[in-house]
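Lesson 9: reading folded outputs for more than one chain in a single document. The general rule is that every protein is listed as its sequence immediately followed by its structure tokens, and records are never interleaved. Here is the first one.
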Amino acid sequence: MAEEKRTLEEEFKPDILKEVDRQVLELSRATAQVVPENALRRRLAVSLRDNLPLRVKLGVDPTAHDLHLGFTVPLNKLRLFSDFGHTPVLIIGDATAMVGDPSGRNKARPTLTRELVDDFASSYLDQAAKVLDMSRVEVRRNSEWLHKLGFVGFIQLAAQATVAQILVREDFDKRFKENAPIYLHELIYPLMQGHDSVVVKADVELGGQDQLFNLLVGRDLQQADGQEPQICMMGHLLVGLDGSRKMSKSFDNYIGVTDEAKDMFGKIMSLPDEVMREWFEYATKMPLPEITSLFASNPHPRELKDRLARRIVERYHDAAAADAGAEHFRRVFSNKELPEDLPAIEIAKSELDDGKIWIAKLLVLAGFAKSNGEASRLVKQGGVKINRESATDPKAAIGISGGEILQVGKKRFGQISLL
């Protein structure tokens, strides 16, 4: 470490190294690992000396309409590189999205149509603009080059790695040991993502901790192409609303960037106390010294969540929306009042039997449960209320005449309307 520092001090002027240290300090926020270790300082120093901005790559596969706050962690990093004068390269994986990558879900991802991918991609760019200055971003779609590979090009790409090398990846290894299906097209995915780095000549690639394998494949392919291998920066994964697993749509523990302000505020207020520090660091732009000072003052967890919710809602909506979200939460959850704008739960009269309906069936029809089994569990857990009265018997049939208030948990309400 000391030898590396002496070498840099001998090679670069003090003012350059001072700026490198400033950038590294800021970029270390929410960063879990950098590969190769200590390589970023030298790459930044060369960039400043030669006045040649680094090309910083972040890839996203458009597989749904909405981005969640977990993905804003690398977006924030990309914005920071951009603010430092480097070139952000946002790759929309419209080709790789059609292939599918398990991404730790231990199963193949469904294949998407071109029309659906294009729709999702447009939505992603709109949402990314909430974090990035898109006028400074180089947006590329990897269909530009992957769709042009042809049969020979595809074979040449596939020849860059062995099956054994690809199966080392944790999720593939787990499925292989469990005799779960692994499809051939999935094995190609890391090579396709790595080929993106070759094409755009990435100096740095950003990704989550669960993406290390794919990012390292990019280094290998760049080296084989005669390029200087990219630096891999893996960010910490934002924990979801359950407080234990990474934020993911698959786990249904996420907050969408496009969520309504009051919903976003309420979800943040439901976070476990123990994840507050990392949420401030990973999901806000609050300066680290200010975060340290805040937690040193040992505020009540409720105050911390309120401040966190206000900062996040204000960022993705505005200050007025943050105030409205806070007031809505206070009125509905703190004072236990009902929301003013109760959504209607429309139930056909034909679903009733002598004016009654099985409570589990009602929850499913209302969209508050995906199955009768899940609905029954909610009732047993004491999370279901009809007109403020707890429902305790999952086998009960309740009388419905219209106008009843159905509540599940602390956040889901609806007023029943018979059709």
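And here is the second record, again sequence then tokens.
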Amino acid sequence: EMGIDSIKLIDRRLNTPAILKIVDAYVKEEYQGNLVDLLPLFSGVTFSKHMSLAKKIFYLQFPLTMMNPFKILDFADAFSELEVFIDNRKLDGFVENMPSDCNIGFCGDCQYCLKVAAETVKIDSDYRESRISGYKKVLEYLYKKGLSF
């Protein structure tokens, strides 16, 4: 009804348990828990605490030719395990309750998505600030090296 003809559930980089979790939730049409667990970028790949820093950077496709290998260690905090909780059950009815005059991408006065996110997404403030700081260090370094986004 929304015009979606196909959807990609998994990524080739996922491990078997992550694939099974995603497919199981899709088949059952429900999931009790953290929605982040079902997002291919985060489920069992990029931000796993068991993955080496070098592998995380590889999966994020950083331009390693522009990076000093010793400098990468300074960015370890930017690639720590993702500590965000999105309460999947609180998203029940999200699409059905979306205002009919919603202009996706240009929120303006509606604020529907912002209100839902405030109730649904939980991020520790100290963790959030450390991640922002880490990302800024990476972007500043890449910018100085001449990489533009």
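What the second record shows: The beta strands are 84-86, 121-123.
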